[in-house]
Amino acid sequence: QLVVPMASSGVVVVRVVIVGDAAVGKTSLAAALVVGTQEGDTTTATRQQQVVPDVLPPVSVTVEGRPVLMVDTASPVPAVVVGGGPPLVAASCDAVRAADVVCVVYDATRAETFDRVASFWLPALRKLRERSVPVVLAGNKLDLKSTGSTTPQDDVVDRVNALMSANQEIEAYVECSAKDRLYLQDVLSVSLKAALFPTAVLYNATEALLQPKCEQALCRIFRLFDADNDGVMSDYDLNKFQLRCFHEALSSAAIAQVKETVGKIESDAVQPSGLTIQGFLVLHRELLRKGDAEVVWGVLRNFGYTDDLSLREDLLYPHIAVGDDHVCEPSYGGVLFLHNLFNKYDRDGDEALSSQELDELFLTTPGMPWGAEFAQYVNTDAAGNLSLAGFLAQWWLATALDPRLTLAYLVYLGYDGDVTTSINVEPRIGGRRALYHCFVFGSRGSGKSSLADALIGKRFLARYQPTMVGRATCGAVSCAGTDKYLVMREFVSDAEALGSEALMRECDVACIVYDAASIESQAYAARIQSQLERRCAHVPCVCIATKSDVAAASPLPLLLPQASLTVSCAAEGGVPLSVFAALATTAARGPSRGGLLAAGRQLPSRAAASLMRKPAMQLLASLLRTRLAALYRAVRRTPGFGVCGAGLVVTLLLTGYPAIAAVLQAIRRSRRVPTVALF
């Protein structure tokens, strides 16, 4: 029995499965590949039942030292009906399914065995395989052909060419002799090349065209090397491509010869400055037509393409360790690559990417990863084109939210080298972070969206538009002399965001926005602040009063302590940049220590601890009791206090915040009772 040695770790064994009709010499061919073995003495009846065990031919017999596992199969016997002919045994079916290449053997002296290649064997292989497998035709018994064959050689060649043209999976044709050991090396060579460098995946020989996926891959490679994005691969670009793929530069004479050869095939494929994209495709199409699939596969695999012409998963999604207490941000090298990419596709030099330029930029990828409306959430110019600041901000945001997607797209876009160097993994607390998440809370109409839009330079819209979906805007902020990126995230439901522990873990600073002219908005903000103190005490909090220009005309008592920042989204000058710098600075300081940061003021540690031990209702009751006496005295001084005053006090005691807000507004309008601050 032949011993099958195991391939060494990391070496791919090419499985060549030998099939064919009875008595065509399958087993003889397999055995002849082992030096000193030949099956010529066995009878036909014995050969129909005997199968050589799987065998690795000696290295001296294989091609380039690559191990080739020869798998012999039994002749067809009843098992699975295929095309009306004799079916294959189960073991043969399993062998075909696992094959890297199938060698269909026929008897060169019997025309009927050749005819069954098209009528039986090719349909059988297609039925057994979900994906097509490369096929090599081997005409055995060449030693008997001169005396036993009645078909002229020219007719045989014509029939083989017709068969190969009609069946793209047939990669090669070899005539050999197992008995006289003629051309056995060729059988191994073409089988190995058919398995490692299948032509049919890349080239349609019938139409003399590149397969669509091959053309798409080559177009991507061309665009990556077209440094100035002018649609022409210059001599410098071509040499850079040559060095990347084959580690050897081309001489000026060699480059001129390449362009001359391509120009003779298609005149418009070459320009004085270099090869056009069509010329690049013509060059590779000509290589495939001449049978040099190995060269084209070398190019494709150098750029990470697999046998089905998709990029390798390990290349697109390399392993990066990111714990819950860490965040991902673009590295200096990543930002530099993105900056150069922006400049490459900014054809008109206006420091903004139009929709057409943006589409061109993503031609080397599966498509834009962010959706058509992403430009609404980053900085753009007056015409709505994506500015460099907005382009970089979007990548910072995308990296923070989904670093795996960023890594994959940087590979598609041609990041040179180890793509994991394009991002930094920083500790959420205490690291050298440059991007912070600001969660924006507030009542409807308080100005949350206007504040977030001001971060990216969007114009203030007087007409109120409710937030129907969660949104995140990202913009650059100058903070202590360095550039930081601030992400302001809004939610459809503040309660759902506050109730998600995993989501709040991403929050670096909470921004509570309230309408300075609405006591209901202030009451809502107070409840949000109370929930933050109770659930997320580690999150620093900043309160921002909006519409201060309106509030100045009709001041109302504040339900919150003095706001740390007071801005007006309706002001002609817009929101001052210092507001966003303050938010970024607060986030950069990290979690509050030693007390709660309430409305921008640090409470003493003892007071903070005391507040945190009290449930929300106890806190509310305590605050109401401390101010109720003052409210009662103020109301008593009002003429006609009597029953109405008593009813007012009872109402306040029973209903809490909403009634307090309504009553205070009514009192203020009537001017019958002095305004009293509850907090």
Short description:
With 679 residues, the chain is of the alpha/beta class. 43% of the residues lie in helices and 16% in strands.
Q: What is the gyration radius calculated from CA atoms? A: 38 Å
Q: What percentage of the residues does DSSP assign to strands (E)?
A: 15-25%
How many helices does DSSP assign?
27
Mean pLDDT: 78
Q: Tell me the total number of β-strands.
A: 24
Unreliable parts: 1-11, 36-49, 77-86, 593-623, 640-659, 666-679
Considering DSSP H and I runs of 4 or more, what fraction of the residues is helical?
Answer: 40-55%
Which structural class matches the secondary elements? Answer: alpha/beta
Cα end-to-end separation: 95 Å
Shape: elongated
Strand order of the largest sheet: 18-19-17-20-21-22
Major β-sheet annotation: 6 strands, mixed
